[in-house]
Write a structure and sequence with these properties.
Length: 402
């Protein structure tokens, strides 16, 4: 990849061949960014990037590499002039993280540390970090907004996300040139409407929707619903499911925000918009859960005000604000597939909370971002992806029109 134009400003996307990464790369190309993807392909398939190039008609520089290997990182930072990084690369199975915590801390925390140190050396100080709603632990408000306290997190995976957020808050407080957007995903689901891109979970899925898909394909006998005695509309767990394409546009909006910060930084002034935002009001009650706890003013740890010497470290929730219970998801998938989905109620899963839905007002206010896809879209797009790619990227593409 030495023949690229060295004056060109590139965005490095780590983990960019993965489920959320590849959908984000597609939207970045559509927004005319020049992209380099670095991925170790442990939980990704290069075919995903081939599909992105096909759908956008644009090309991607791909570098196979591992963020835990500083040599791999040095090579790519020597070869390209980056102005920003979007950091997805991580392993993310909650259950597995309790079995092999050292692997999770090595890959997710040490790997991130290597990446940030190399970024610092090459003066690349604009970063979008894919974080997770799991950093809120047992939320002290519902829907959750960015003023909610962080932790305690109930699993090593979630702790790696919290630790990396804390590292980034310290980096921003130490150096005014760093600008960071922490994007806290709620429950990513769905697939590109073309049916050409989607999630390829390995083994028995931990997450609900991939599990439901396996049952619909006849690979698993029935959905096990983890508890029906929660304080929710029908007793089953309520979550904020967000379409992967909405997550992708959220990352483009965050990158645009960093471009704004960068140019303001160059002019040595921060615009009014970069001063602490007005205290976000909790959104109205969701379809299945209502909030009674008032939100408190943004603590400075969440948002460095323009008065502080530090750079900007801004956290945003990426969710829809609408909660769906497990039973509601099952009926939405039955409607989208016109099939019956067998299930049985079993005991609660360790570490689960009853309700977790987002207040994404701040991302709308400050990033101008809004989720566009409905639950019906999420179900329909997932099923189209599954029908056309019964074995994910490993198998043949079935030409099965709707
Ligand atoms: C959703 C709901 C379960 C499976 C996790 C991670 C979080 C993030 C998103 C990475 C819950 C219920 C599930 C099943 C079920 N990942 N369920 N039967 O736990 O909200 O979040 O994925 O960032 O960090 O914690 O998602 O899909 O596992 O569960 O009843 O077979 O479905 O109890 O209510 P979760 P999930």
């Amino acid at each position: 990849y030495m023949d690229h134009n060295s004056k060109q400003r590139y965005v490095l996307v780590t983990g960019g061949a993965g489920y959320i990464g590849s959908h984000t790369v597609l939207e970045l190309l559509n927004a005319d960014y020049s992209i380099v993807v670095m991925d170790n392909l442990v939980n990704a398939n290069l075919e995903a990037l081939a599909r992105v190039e096909y759908l956008t008609g644009k090309s991607i520089y791909f570098v196979e590499g591992d963020i835990t290997c500083e040599k791999d990182l040095e090579k790519v930072f020597q070869a390209f002039h980056f102005w920003a990084v979007i950091h997805f690369a991580a392993i993310k199975a909650v259950g597995e993280s309790t079995q092999i915590p050292l692997e999770y801390y090595h890959n997710n925390v040490t790997g991130s540390l290597h990446l940030f140190r190399v970024m610092n050396r090459y003066k690349v100080k604009n970063l979008v970090f894919s974080s997770s709603a799991t950093v809120y632990g047992e939320p002290d408000m519902m829907p959750v907004n960015e003023t909610a306290s962080l932790g305690p997190v109930t699993n090593p995976y979630g702790r790696t996300k919290l630790f990396v957020e804390e590292m980034l808050r310290d980096v921003c407080a130490s150096d005014p040139d760093w600008n960071v957007c922490l994007l806290r995903f709620f429950n990513p689901v769905g697939a590109h409407p073309s049916g050409l891109m989607g999630e390829c979970p390995q083994g028995i899925p931990n997450n609900l929707l991939p599990y439901v898909i396996r049952v619909l394909q006849g690979h698993l006998p029935c959905v096990q619903i983890f508890g029906s005695d929660y304080d929710t509309v029908d007793g089953t767990g309520v979550r904020d499911y967000i379409h992967v394409c909405d997550l992708a546009t959220g990352h483009v909006a965050a990158l645009k925000r960093l471009e704004g910060e960068e140019s303001e930084g160059k002019r040595g002034v921060r615009s009014a918009s970069s001063s602490p935002s007005p205290t976000p009001q909790p959104s109205s009650s969701t379809t299945t859960a209502t909030s009674s706890i008032e939100s408190s003013p943004l603590p400075s740890s969440t948002r460095s005000s323009s008065l502080r010497q530090g750079g900007h470290c801004m956290a945003y929730n990426l969710g829809t604000g609408v909660g769906y219970s497990v039973l509601e998801i099952i009926s939405a998938m039955e409607k989208a597939t016109q099939k019956t989905i067998p299930y049985k109620i079993v005991e609660r899963r360790q570490g689960d909370v009853g309700v977790c839905t987002a207040d994404a007002t701040l991302a709308n206010l400050e990033l101008g971002w809004k989720p566009l896809y409905s639950m019906d879209d999420m179900c329909r797009d997932m099923w189209r992806w599954t029908r056309r790619n019964p074995n994910g990227y490993d198998g043949p593409l079935i030409d099965d029109d709707d």
